[in-house]
Amino acid sequence: MVKIVGMIPARMKASRFPGKPLHPIHGRPMLEHVWHRASMFPRWDLLAICTCDREIMDFARAKGFAAIMTADTHVRALDRVAEGAEKCGLALDPDDIVVCAQGDEPMMRPDMIEAVVRPFFEDPSVEGTVLATHIIDEAIFRNPDTVKLVHDTNGDVLYTSRAPIPYCAQFTPELGARRIHGILAFRWHYLRTFMALPQTPLEIQEACDSNRLCGSGRRQRVAPYPYVPSFSVDSPADIGLVERAMFDDPLWGKY
User: Fold this and answer.
1) pLDDT value at position 75?
2) What is the pLDDT of residue 15?
3) CA–CA distance from 22 to each of 133, 139, 196, 243, 247 (Å)?
4) Tell me, what's the pLDDT at 57?
5) CATH no. of 4-133+180-225
């Protein structure tokens, strides 16, 4: 049986929002929301927080959440996830699946995780996936904190950018623009390949992990997910947006 391992990468020194993982949302640290929502996915063989910060480790242990200490030298979240998977205590086979559930997605839903896992079982050639949701709001389309993507006719990522892509003279929801929603998954052997690749110029310029793959001629399948009012936390201004949206979220009050 293929094992499914979940890693929640989190660090305190985020450049745009220091201390973000433990910032309160409705009285609970953001990371606590992420943990409880991710843990609702029923198919985990293991779920753990991976971090380089003692403060986050202490928080996780106090809550009874599994946590793994990683190096403080990682540039990208996926590098941290790969180290966490190596140290997770399970013997991972090459085709096992490692899911990266970003620690700044306090409104994630368990069916989002199901969406990034499903393509591996539908198409054996798939080695990596990324969740992508439709953009219906022009402000999000124009926001450089939001990473957009375009894909080919097979559904594989061509490019990810903080710029508004694809081009349009006037934005409409019918454009079909999509943004990365911070959940990605990889076959274990493919994640190890990612670790061995050098950073690419476009990865550095756009500050997005996925460009290391497409910039190296490798594939990552888009896992589409319909629009829902679900927001990432990139800056302190996003906290109020998330708190307001949570009142209408179906998981509100269930943990």
Assistant:
1) 78
2) 73
3) 26, 27, 31, 15, 20
4) 97
5) 3.90.550.10
Those residues of the chain that have pLDDT short of 50 are none
User: Which residue type occupies 91?
Assistant: A
Contact between residue 9 and residue 225 where contact means Cβ atoms under 8 Å apart: no
pLDDT of residue 240: 94
Q: Give residue limits of the domains in the chain.
A: 4-133+180-225
CA 143 to chain centroid, in Å, comes to: 18
User: What is the reported pLDDT for 76?
Assistant: 83
* Backbone dihedral angles phi then psi of residue 13, each to the nearest 5 degrees: -100, 35
Comparing C-alpha atoms, which of 178, 193, 182, 158 is closest to residue 233? 182
Other Cβ atoms within 10 Å of 90 Cβ, number: 13
Q: What are phi and psi of 239, to 5 degrees?
A: -60, -45
Alpha helices in the chain (DSSP H): 30-38, 54-63, 77-86, 110-122, 138-142, 188-196, 201-206, 210-214, 237-246
In sequence order, the β-bridge partners of residue 225 are: 133
| Residue 192 Cα to chain centre, angstroms | 17
- For the record, the structure tokens of 149 come out as 């993507």
Cα Rg of the chain (Å, integer): 17
CA 208 to CA 146: how far, in whole Å? 11
Distance CA 89, CA 190 (A): 19
Directed axis angle between helix 188-196 and helix 77-86, to 10°? 130
pLDDT tens for 78-107 read 999 999 999 999 999 999 999 999 999 999
Supply the mean pLDDT for the chain. Answer: 95
Q: Tell me how far apart the alpha carbons of residues 221 and 81 are, in angstroms, rounded to a whole number.
A: 19
Structure tokens at 231: 């927001």
CA–CA gap between residue 102 and residue 85 (Å, rounded):
14
Say which amino acid occupies 44. Answer: W
